[in-house]
């Protein structure tokens, strides 16, 4: 089976430089976040959230500008890993002493399971389909007549799409996830959903532990935070976790909606590129003008869609060898 490496296609020195840039960006972002409770100790945690969001956006915008100026690249998967390690490090070094044993073991297990899930999705096969014709990466439907596999008439193969980033044909292609460095397709969509849910649960548990730390250590009263390094680090990582949850919950909701409607993100965004999603009608009889409307031919009702999603799998013959 073909295994996808995130870094095998680049020279080693470029890989190391990319990881170093990622490390610097992550550390700068957390340093900037730690300045929020330091400069605004009079604000409540809720009031700090929009300030923290502005600081995060500004930090990443500045880092992006500097990277383009210096012609350097960063690795999104590496940044994800470093962010998790940083938060876990703050928890182990500062927070865990104030946490009950059961909650402490739960959070540590969540971090471990999250890393296992990330490893599998980083290096897993999303459902690559060998096609004789070259994949140009254009957002258009792949001609399945070129698929060198049996059962060409399978409904699964009718949804083979070409990934613009990977230049590979992926069965059940939903989107390319830069944070995971891989496509999300038929074979790893279940794992993708589990990992996203895992992120939300881990961040929520970390937020609970941070609140417990403030309560036990008396670093915070009902609305205020003291100015010291441990307290600022806990507050900044708590703000980061809350901001992550704020966008991950709508993100997860969107994918649940797509599952219920049996549609992929790529198909929804670029439906005008795929004929099966187009219904051409004439607004008036004998009118020379036509109107193209969206129609989902794969929607079989919520219950059937969810059942098909939960039971879908690729035969071993469809794996790339």
TrEMBL record:
Residues 159-271 form the Palmitoyltransferase DHHC domain. The keyword Isomerase does not apply. The lineage of its organism: Eukaryota, Viridiplantae, Streptophyta, Embryophyta, Tracheophyta. It catalyses: L-cysteinyl-[protein] + hexadecanoyl-CoA = S-hexadecanoyl-L-cysteinyl-[protein] + CoA. Its EC number is 2.3.1.225. This is S-acyltransferase. Keywords: Acyltransferase, Membrane, Transferase, Transmembrane, Transmembrane helix. The chain crosses the membrane at residues 44-66, 78-100, 106-123, 191-213, 233-254. It is found in: Membrane. The DHHC domain is required for palmitoyltransferase activity. It comes from the Eukaryota. It comes from Dendrobium nobile (Orchid). Belongs to the DHHC palmitoyltransferase family. It is an enzyme of class 2 (transferase).
